[in-house]
């Protein structure tokens, strides 16, 4: 494998200099209060909102894991990259309720809709989810990328990148994150697109690729009898995880809440949805190209998760290698920066401030910085478990999310779309859901020590996609039954927070925030998604 040369290092260095210059400029602007530090002063335009959504989602787990899917016969997981339609749901359905509530965090919104108990539970579950699915996964993937590119030990590369990212995130807050993410998104797209075009050329184009790996390999739809990826549970569970991640998760929604108004925020989600389609071409196809070249004996890698960096160093000339290496580092740093800031926001505003309400703004910002460091340490400690739960990084990520997302998705969907759901129903679904989800995760982690044929082993071995779908419907049922058995919520208290209590003035305000251009762009994105589903079938 070709290593980086002097010209590559020059390109890498220039990238980091630009990034640090932007971060330094933002840091010099000062963060006067929590709104500046956590939501960039709520004054961001649609382009930066959309680019930030994309950059915070596309982390090193996508570069490594999605390419690994392409190289490792896991094409059904492609459906998770077709969630542009869910991003559109955020802008068209969820956003108006979030915007008019003027909240900082998603747990804060649940308190407005239900009560303080739901806020506490969601805050704790969200931080646990970030440690298990974002911080640990991103550091793990980053370690693979950096060690493959630079030929250094896994832990040295991973921890050094974490320190650099954490530094500008802690000092600059949300404003530093969103503006550097806009630059990182451009670098990542240019670098990965270059590799995609050169990779397809190396295998003889799309027809040559299909001929090498066979058309059957590219089929994302498998029968319901398939033991790993049955199509119906896959559709249900991926949609549930998508709604949780794109419509209720702090990392994503926090970017939308930075917008200056509803119109800019919605256009940001439309732009982000359009960009969300690109990972299929930027990362998945290079993984398939890497597999094709491996089948021809032109390259070699031990694990599918090594496909992207190996392909990059094999195909790209000097300078371009440095550009794509910068893109990989951008992916790692942007996703880490997003999680760092969102974790500190959740802990500071939803947990610490509620315990110590008298604390001043400056003290809260400092506590947020300390919280970032603690989350990083916990994420690093969880890394060894990743290889136990799955032989592929991307599958691990989706599996853990299937155990955490259903109760949260159920409560938010019911809370916004049905006014009869009350606080008792919400807290019951969240608590029971958290217990069930963590039980499944722990059972699967220690499955190797269980006796086959036992009830506990069967629970641990139960297909994760089928579990996710059943888990969601169980949480919905719990919320509905408990709500119907207890007192209905006061409609005045939840006015404007659900479809059933929205006033005419609020509806008119929402309608005035979009034009025909927004509608046409939305329909075009949905059409592209349908075309991709047909192509990979």
Explain the overall architecture.
The protein is mostly helical. The protein has one domain (6-402): Sodium/glucose cotransporter, CATH 1.20.1730. The protein contains 22 helices and no strands. The longest helix has 49 residues, at 154-202. It is globular and about 70 Å long. Residues 33-41 have low confidence and may be disordered.
Shape: globular
- Uncertain residue ranges: 33-41
* Class from helix and strand fractions: mainly alpha
Beta-strand content:
under 5%
Radius of gyration, whole Å:
23 Å
Class in CATH? Mainly Alpha
Element order: H for helix, E for strand: HHHHHHHHHHHHHHHHHHHHHH
Helix content: over 70%
Quick one: CATH superfamily?
Sodium/glucose cotransporter
Total separate domains: 1
What's the architecture, going by CATH?
Up-down Bundle
Mean pLDDT: 83
How many helical stretches? 22
Instruction: Note the main sheet.
Output: none
Number of beta-strand segments? 0
Report how far apart the termini are.
34 Å
CATH topology: Sodium/glucose cotransporter
């Amino acid at each position: 494998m070709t290593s980086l040369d002097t010209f590559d290092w020059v390109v890498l260095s220039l990238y980091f200099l630009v990034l640090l210059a932007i971060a330094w400029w933002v840091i010099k602007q000062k963060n006067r209060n929590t709104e500046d530090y956590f939501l960039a002063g709520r004054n961001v335009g649609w382009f930066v909102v959309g680019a930030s959504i994309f950059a915070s989602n596309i982390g090193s787990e996508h570069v490594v894991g999605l390419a690994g899917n392409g190289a490792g016969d896991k094409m059904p997981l492609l459906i998770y990259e077709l969630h542009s339609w869910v991003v559109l749901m955020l802008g068209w359905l969820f956003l108006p309720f979030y915007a008019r509530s003027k909240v900082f965090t998603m747990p804060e919104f649940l308190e407005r809709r239900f009560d303080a108990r739901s806020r506490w539970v969601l805050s704790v579950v969200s931080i646990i989810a970030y440690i298990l699915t974002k911080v640990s996964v991103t550091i793990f993937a980053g370690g693979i990328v950096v060690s493959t590119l630079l030929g250094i030990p896994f832990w040295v590369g991973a921890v050094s990148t974490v320190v650099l990212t954490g530094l500008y995130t802690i000092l600059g807050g949300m404003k530093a994150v969103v503006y550097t993410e806009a630059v990182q998104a451009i670098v990542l797209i240019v670098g990965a697109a270059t590799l995609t075009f050169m990779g397809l050329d190396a295998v003889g184009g799309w027809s040559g690729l299909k001929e090498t790996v066979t058309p059957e390999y590219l089929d994302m739809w498998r029968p319901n009898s398939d033991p790993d990826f049955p199509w119906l549970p896959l559709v249900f569970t991926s949609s549930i995880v998508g709604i949780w991640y794109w419509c209720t998760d702090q990392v994503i929604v926090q970017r939308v809440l930075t917008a200056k108004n509803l119109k800019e925020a919605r256009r940001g989600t439309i732009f982000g949805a359009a960009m969300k389609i690109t990972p299929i071409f930027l990362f998945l196809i290079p993984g398939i190209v890497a597999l094709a070249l491996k089948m021809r004996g032109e390259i070699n890698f031990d694990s599918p998760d090594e496909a992207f960096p190996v392909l990059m160093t094999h195909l790209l000339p000097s300078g371009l290698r440095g550009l794509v290496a910068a893109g990989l580092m951008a992916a790692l740093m942007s996703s880490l920066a997003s999680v760092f800031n969102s974790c500190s926001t959740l802990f500071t505003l939803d947990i610490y401030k509620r315990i110590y309400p008298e604390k001043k703004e400056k003290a809260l910002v400092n506590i947020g910085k300390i919280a970032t460091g603690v989350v990083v340490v916990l994420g690093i400690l969880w890394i060894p478990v990743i290889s136990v739960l799955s032989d592929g990084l991307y599958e691990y990520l989706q599996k853990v999310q299937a155990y955490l997302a259903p109760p949260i998705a159920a409560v938010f969907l019911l809370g916004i779309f049905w006014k009869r759901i009350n606080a008792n129903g919400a807290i019951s679904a969240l608590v029971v859901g958290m217990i069930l989800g963590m039980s499944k995760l722990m059972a699967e982690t220690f499955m190797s020590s269980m006796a086959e044929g036992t009830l506990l082993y069967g629970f641990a071995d139960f297909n994760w996609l089928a579990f996710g779908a059943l888990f969601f419907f169980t949480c919905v049922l719990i919320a509905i039954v408990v709500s119907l058995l207890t007192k209905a919520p006061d409609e005045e208290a939840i006015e404007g927070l659900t479809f059933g209590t929205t006033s005419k003035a609020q509806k008119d305000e929402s309608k005035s925030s979009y034009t025909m251009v927004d509608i046409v762009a939305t329909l075009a994105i949905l059409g592209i998604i349908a075309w991709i589903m047909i192509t990979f079938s």
